[in-house]
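Lecture notes, continued. The same structure-token format from the folding unit now serves as the input rather than the output. Read the line below as a description of shape only.
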């Protein structure tokens, strides 16, 4: 019991520090967040308290109003903090990968399965909807990258559905703040064992590429490979 109490005591300052840090970060992008959250709490509590006086139960409705007001404040703060975080990440390389890491249970994400010199990136996620390719960068540059990845997946898993999205604010693109909900709205067509098989195939494909022998430096001029496989 003593150990549990000590652990809870140590954890509480950590949670409070995290909430304070989140509030400071949110306030930079949303200066009115404090007033809005406080206003929501005061109005909610006031409404319940007024109803309590009308029905002659101010104490009971006051307690209930306090709890509901606290919950409403937490919900409003959470949404505004999330919106501020997305606003700060918008347009930064790797932002989509950060969102994919928090999609939820049942999804396996692999960041940066393809990348070019312009820092256009393609990420991959596997879930009940199949395989999802998410690109971030210039649309004209990432479309060929998506096509190449889809062609590669079609060779090893022709029966698995593959979806692709480009993160951005342009026409036909998915805003970063809507990426998670977009993935969760996809039709679920795979069962748990099938998802495991897909991940195993993709992992084996990655291991095969990483274990492929590559020259460690430039080939000397004039060298050639004989039929026997040994260099002369």
């Amino acid at each position: 019991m003593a150990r549990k109490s000590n652990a809870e005591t140590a954890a509480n300052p950590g949670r409070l520090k995290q909430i304070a840090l989140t509030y400071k970060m949110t306030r930079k992008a949303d200066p009115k967040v404090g007033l809005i959250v406080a206003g929501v709490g005061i109005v909610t509590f006031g409404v319940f308290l007024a109803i309590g006086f009308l029905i002659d139960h101010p104490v009971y409705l006051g307690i209930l109003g306090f709890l509901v007001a606290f919950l409403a404040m937490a919900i409003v703060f959470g949404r505004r903090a999330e919106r501020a975080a997305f606003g700060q990440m918008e347009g930064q390389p790797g932002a989509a990968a950060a969102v994919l890491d928090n999609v939820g249970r049942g999804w396996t994400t692999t960041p940066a399965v393809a990348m070019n010199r312009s820092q256009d990136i393609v990420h991959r996620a596997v879930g009940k909807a199949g395989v999802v390719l998410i690109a971030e960068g210039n649309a004209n540059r990432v479309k060929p990258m998506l096509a190449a990845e889809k062609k590669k997946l079609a060779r090893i898993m022709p029966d698995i559905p593959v979806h692709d999205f480009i993160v951005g604010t342009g026409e036909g693109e998915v805003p970063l703040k809507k990426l998670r909900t977009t993935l969760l709205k996809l039709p679920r067509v795979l069962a748990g064992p099938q998802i495991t098989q897909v991940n195993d195939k993709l992992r084996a494909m990655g291991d095969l590429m990483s274990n492929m022998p590559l020259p460690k430096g430039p080939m000397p001029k004039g060298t050639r490979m004989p039929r026997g496989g040994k260099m002369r």
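Point for the exam: The mean pLDDT is 79.
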